[in-house]
Amino acid sequence: MKLNGRTVLLKQDQTLAEFLLAERFDGKTIAVELNGVIVARAEYETTRLTDEDSLEVVSFVGGG
Which InterPro entries does the protein's record reference (predicted)? Predict the structure, then answer.
């Protein structure tokens, strides 16, 4: 699977939510694009990942 342009191996069959937790992403401050499509936060628990997927995770940064 590709994560932000680098290759990573899925250690097990998992959902997007499980993967993000394992990779220590804060689900409240990110946007996720899976295979070119934005994934709604409500779908993280039901979206299954495969080794063929391409995942882009973008963090929001606040400032003034």
Answer: Beta-grasp_dom_sf, Mopterin_synth/thiamin_S_b, Thi_S, ThiS/MoaD-like
Is residue 64 situated within a structural domain? no
CB neighbour class for 60 (10 Å; exposed up to 12, middle 13-18, buried from 19): exposed
Looking at the structure of the chain, the number of domains it has is 1
Residue 54 CA to residue 43 CA, distance in Å, equals: 17
3-state secondary structure of 42: helix
What does pLDDT average to in each consecutive run of 10 residues of the chain (64 residues)? 94 92 89 97 96 94 68
Domain coverage including residue 15:
2-59
Q: What whole-number distance in Å separates Cα of residue 39 and Cα of residue 31?
A: 8
